[in-house]
Amino acid sequence: MRITVVGTGYVGLVSGVCFAEFGFNVTCVDKNKSKIEELNRGGVPIYEPGLDKLISKNFAAGRLRFVSEIEEGVRNADIIFIAVGTPSRSDGSADLSYVYQAAEEIARSANNGALIVIKSTVPVGTSGAVKKFLLDKGIDADVAFNPEFLKEGAAVEDFMHPDRVILGVESKNAKRILSQVYRPLYVFNTPLVFTDLETAELSKYASNAFLAMKVAFINEIADLCESCGADVNEVAIAMGLDKRIGDKFLQAGPGYGGSCFPKDTSALNHFAAERGVNLSLVKETIRSNGDRRKRMAEKILSACGNNVRGKNIAVLGVTFKANTDDMRDSPSIDIIKALAEHGAHIKIYDPSFSGQAAEIFRGIPFGDNAYDVCNGADAVIILTDWSEFRALNLKELNGRVKNPLLIDLRNIYTLSEVNSSGFNYCSVGRVFKKLGAAKETE
After folding, report:
1. Lowest CB count within 10 Å: 47, 128, 202, 359, which one?
2. Is the CB of residue 383 less than 8 Å from the CB of residue 257?
3. Statement to judge: residues 60 and 184 lie in one domain
4. 260 carries an active-site annotation
């Protein structure tokens, strides 16, 4: 079976490479010629653990190729996945222009009988509208919807060992073909959930909105914990042990970011409003997460005595989560901007060495490692929970800083281990009592 994937962002590139790992012949298409050239040279345009090895392996085996022309890519393809971006418009709705642009170009070159599968996250009704769009162009093709549920930083693992695969189809032929595509997952007993197009489309938005709500909820519980002396980490453990709740997405912090939750909650809310449906919980999640960044900036300022002017602030991690170089809607952007506006001198270290971050924080120096950026710091702030930050030698770090203040917005340290290091410690949803101190430090 010959598979073509249009779009080589996180979803498209990971999907195409993993389909090749399944043993299919895969062509990945992207109009960005420099990206295609980089991939053909063996480079990887995104930071995603394990992806480089799979690309190298399948490229060498002849199962994977990269082209910049859609006509070349879709010619003779049996199944064509559309995995282009659907960014937010200013009103919160999803911009579907890239989807329709891809569909139009596919219509010029696709074989009759090819199955068109939309992987991009799209509002309910889009797959059916794309089918009509293709029919108006003279292409009577089956259109299916196959949402992705890939976490950046664990996308390869999520694709190869998914919790489930959702497949919106309208015909037996589409069901037969997609059953063959995902046949390699049979060995893991992965559920293949076949449903109609509209249900599959809504399932993606509903899943992401629910997870975003869990993040917003635990962050608000963290605020309550700080006011009453409870420990949000232990509260989250107690909640997560309830199988009805589960322990995922219950880590208190600076709020969600990235390419999915912000735009998908906004798009779902906009879609519902157009139909006269009030998604009050989703709206409150969006508001709560937006306020979270302001609160975290205020938390940092408070820990610094409400004055950071002229102070050296070391920031560890700026990507929206660990194991990615993605800066889209990262909480660090608003937090660092607020500190800079208050006159702080900031230095950053992020293990991804993200080009996106360098562009966003132009003019702010980046260090080569965590220890160097902390030299002479008046405060050290952990904004992203990279694994290498979990094993910092805090006593060595204490010897490098000017003022022993550690502000951990990801709660990656226990209160006791920080206490023994001599740092004053500020975390999220926990109260820290320094040894020998009468007062509490938030």
Report:
1. 359
2. no
3. yes
4. yes
What are residue 316's DSSP bridge partners? Answer: 349, 382
Structure tokens at 369: 């490692």
Q: Which tens digits make up the pLDDT trace of 274-311? A: 999 999 999 999 999 999 999 999 999 999 999 999 99
3-class secondary-structure state, position 314: strand
Angle at CA 104, nearest 5°, toward 103 and 106? 65
Q: What percent of the chain has pLDDT over 70?
A: 98
- Looking at the structure, tell me whether residues 338 and 392 fall in a common domain: yes
Q: Which of 10, 47, 9, 51 is nearest to 353 (CA)?
A: 47
Per-residue pLDDT at 440 exceeds 60: no
Domain count, the chain: 3
436 phi and psi, to 5 degrees? Answer: 85, 0
Residue pair 99/118 in contact (Cβ under 8 Å)? The answer is: yes
Instruction: Say if residue 276 is in the same domain as residue 307.
Output: no
Which residues constitute the domain of residue 265? 205-288
Examine the domain organization and report whether 309 and 393 are in the same domain.
yes
Q: How many residues does the chain have?
A: 442
Q: 0.90 exceeded by the pTM?
A: yes
CATH number at residue 380: 3.40.50.720
3-state secondary structure of 117: strand
The whole-number pLDDT of residue 306 equals: 96
Q: pLDDT, tens digit, for every residue of 74-130?
A: 988 999 999 999 999 999 999 999 999 999 999 998 888 899 999 999 999 999 999
How many whole angstroms separate alpha carbon 112 and alpha carbon 139? 7
Arithmetic mean of pLDDT, 394-418: 94
Which residues does residue 380 pair with via DSSP β-bridges, in sequence order?
A: 314, 406
d(C-alpha 202, C-alpha 264), whole Å: 11
Torsion of CA 208, 211, 213, 215, to 10 degrees: -130
The DSSP H or E segment spanning 312 is strand 312-316
CATH for 284: 1.10.1040.10
Could you tell me the two tokens for 325? 């170089």
List 260, 304, 374, 426, catalytic entry: 260
Q: Are 402 and 312 in contact (CB under 8 A)?
A: yes
Rounded distance, CA 138 to CA 45, Å?
A: 36
